[in-house]
């Protein structure tokens, strides 16, 4: 077959590409759907991340809760990815598919790791979304690195401003609660990581709950994938870090979503205080909702995220 004949045969395809169909946006160089994507931080820790959806869409970056990983955001990532957004989520150091360093298991380092990812992907105009510990990571990231790349933030069932009880935080949970977490982990981490999702995390210990064994198993699997020291030290990071100044410094709109039946991060010591510290905060209280809003109130959270990002 001659070159001209080949060209003629292919003409219909060319017109398809240029005309009757929306050609996909150009794909950034780093975007590789075949390799497991990692970035390496200053101390050599490898951070795994997912980069889904429309590579040219506005970016939404998700930070997961303790002791989970980016898988826990898949309902929101699938939804917003299908709405045309670029949806990105990493596994925090020591969690999921990231390395398990013995050091740096604290909020400042978590925030610095996330900055490495932001710079690697060179993303701007980002909406950051954090759940629980991830909400602390979002607050510390913004307090420590500023909002130049970020236009909005969402804190879902999040730990800020500070969980642990003290003279200046009387509504907080006593340190004995977190010491007990550590003790349970030390005795039998596998059993503790079964008891948390079977009980308070999803609200499955409530009489009228619809229990999902799949969610319990997924939580356990993600939890056990995290390193021991990493999930152990993260308890201090999420309970004792004071995010008050981070929240006060924020000059961007922040949506705060929290359930009144959150048995992990009680709303009285978190969202109700956080909203007073934020300059441009909006509080959405989910009546009777448990801690696991991203898993239990999927459609409601998805709609609230979409509305907030578009607003
Ligand atoms: C950020 O994205 C929104 C929504 O796509 C757009 O309206 C806005 O102009 C963008 N802002 C900047 C600074 O790029
Ligand atoms: C569970 O029961 C309580 C008390 O009757 C009620 O307030 C709440 O709305 C119920 N929750 C669900 C998810 O049905
Ligand atoms: C948290 O930090 C703020 C100042 O940023 C301080 O006023 C407050 O006392 C601190 N709270 C606790 C419990 O350490």
Features:
311 residues; Rossmann fold; 11 helices; globular; binds 2-acetamido-2-deoxy-beta-D-glucopyranose; Non-heme chloroperoxidase; AB_hydrolase; signal; AB_hydrolase_1
Description:
InterPro entries: AB_hydrolase, AB_hydrolase_1, AB_hydrolase_fold. Residues 1-19 form the signal peptide. Pfam families: Abhydrolase_1. Keywords: Signal. The protein has 311 residues and is an alpha/beta fold. The chain has one domain (32-310): Rossmann fold, CATH 3.40.50.1820. It has eleven helices and eight strands. The chain has helices spanning 3-20, 74-82, 107-121, 133-145, 175-198, 213-225, 228-240, 244-249, 271-277, 293-296, 298-310, and strands at 38-40, 46-53, 59-63, 86-90, 126-131, 150-156, 254-259, 281-286. Strands 1-2-4-3-5-6-7-8 form an eight-stranded mixed beta sheet, with helices on both faces. Helix 5 (175-198) packs across helix 7. The radius of gyration is 21 Å and the shape is globular. One 2-acetamido-2-deoxy-beta-D-glucopyranose (NAG) binds at residues 58, 125, 151.
Query: What's the CATH architecture?
Result: 3-Layer(aba) Sandwich
Distinct small molecules bound, one entry per kind = 2-acetamido-2-deoxy-beta-D-glucopyranose
CATH class: Alpha Beta
Which sequence of SSEs, written as H and E, runs from N to C? Answer: HEEEHEHEHEHHHHEHEHH
In short:
This protein is of the alpha/beta class and 311 residues long. The chain has a single domain (32-310), classed as Rossmann fold, CATH 3.40.50. It has helices at residues 3-20, 74-82, 107-121, 133-145, 175-198, 213-225, 228-240, 244-249, 271-277, 293-296, 298-310; strands spanning 38-40, 46-53, 59-63, 86-90, 126-131, 150-156, 254-259, 281-286.
